[in-house]
Structures are given as C-alpha cells and as structure tokens.
Design a protein that fits this description.
By secondary structure, the protein is an alpha/beta fold. The protein has five helices and five strands, in the order αβαβααβαββ. The chain starts with a helix and ends with a strand.
Length: about 150
C-alpha cells in the first residue's frame, strides 16, 4: 500500500522532470534567436574594450575612439523591440534611462543624441558605409564590412 503511494509520487516527479527538461530544450535556442549583436565598422576592430565602454559610448559620454577619431553612434527608435532588448541586455539599463541621458545632454547643450535609423537594414547599411560607426542589429550576418563586438 505504502509502496504504491511512493511509486505514484516517483512517476509524477519523473513526468514533471521530463516536462521541465523539454521546456529548457525548447526555450534555450529561442533566447539566442532574440539576441542583439553590437556591430562596428570594420575599421574599428581594435577600438572596443569591455561592456562598460559600450555603455559609455551609447550614453554619449565617450565621444572619441582611443585613436582620437569621433565615434558615430547609430540607434533604432525608442519604441523598437530591438532597441529595448539592446539597452537591457548590453547596456544593462532601461531605455527610459538612456533617453533621459540623451535629453539632458541635448537640453543643456552639452551634447547631441545619437543618430536614429528606422530599421535594422538601414542600421546595417549605415554601419557598413560610415567610418568609426557603432550600432546594433538583431541577428548575425556575414559581411566583411562590419565587425561583431562580444562584450563578455
């Protein structure tokens, strides 16, 4: 009688464990599908160093690459899902915080906000054709004119 009870409990645990593992197997690849990639013009390969530098660049506090050339920052619109994911994943802040930083710089006259593009295709084209540029897209693409930055 008691062993039947334990067998039922054991079978239920196995069933839940199988469902849990199935969920992990299904959801892990989806996370990589929604990953945001930071890209730079291929001329800037050796310029990037660390994720703190990335936050500084996109909040427009760092305006020049280590070689002294001006950084051209491209971003998507604030309501873009890719922009929201980029800010949260890569900069580890909220989009409204980044917007507030840009607005403060604009209204105090201490700086300009980054250049806003309308799509990831336009972002990719701007990064490829603009020297000293940096931006982000929602997928990896094979192109020699861009460099992917891995902030680990």
């Amino acid at each position: 009688m008691m062993s039947d009870y334990f067998n039922v409990i054991l079978q239920m645990r196995k069933r839940y464990l199988k469902r849990f593992l199935l969920c992990i197997i299904v959801l892990l690849p989806m996370q990589s599908l929604f990953a945001v990639e930071v890209i730079t013009n291929s001329d800037n390969v050796a310029q990037m160093q660390g994720s703190n530098n990335l936050r500084s660049i996109f909040s427009m506090r760092t305006r020049y690459w280590p070689n002294g050339e001006k950084i051209r920052v491209f971003v998507l619109a604030d309501d873009s899902e890719v922009h929201k994911k980029f800010v949260k994943q890569k900069l580890q802040m909220f989009p409204h915080q980044l917007r507030r930083t840009w607005d403060r710089m604009t209204y105090t006259g201490t700086g300009q906000p980054p250049i806003t593009v309308h799509s990831t295709a336009e972002m990719l084209e701007k990064i490829k054709t603009t020297k000293n540029s940096i931006g982000y897209i929602d997928r990896r693409v094979e192109d020699e004119a861009i460099h992917f930055f891995d902030a680990q």
